[in-house]
Specification:
Strand content: 5-15%
Structural class: alpha/beta
Radius of gyration: 15 Å
Mean pLDDT: 91
Strand order of the largest sheet: 2-1-3-4
Largest sheet: 4 strands, mixed
């Protein structure tokens, strides 16, 4: 185990923090990650690997990752936070709720 992993496990833990963000900016740069692969939230490219720095289709850099099941992917989150500290994790349910609200507003006017 690397020093970064040891430091993370011993002194730091993930805790939710609520921030006010512009959803359009977040949506343009999010990798939505399921059980085995991800989807680019900008162009909807499927089968994006978790280690991708940017979308293979539209070349948009991933600044955010939304895991469908955080508990299942916690070890991956620890590794990613060590390797790519600039990436932020966002709540998948929040992301999808806001996305749905925006879609409904655009349809209903």
């Amino acid at each position: 185990m690397s020093l970064c992993y040891n430091a993370r496990l011993m002194s730091k833990q993930f805790i939710r923090v609520y921030r006010n963000l512009f959803f359009d900016e977040v949506k343009q740069h999010t990798l939505e990650y399921g059980a085995l692969s991800g989807v680019c939230s900008k162009c909807k490219e499927f089968n994006v690997k978790l280690d991708a720095l940017k979308c293979p289709q539209c070349n948009t850099p991933f600044k955010y990752i939304a895991f469908q099941n955080v508990r299942e992917h916690l070890p991956k989150m620890i590794r990613i936070s060590c390797e790519r500290p600039e990436v932020q994790f966002i709540d998948y349910q929040d992301f999808k709720r806001i996305e749905g609200e925006q879609k409904a507003r655009s349809i209903l006017g």
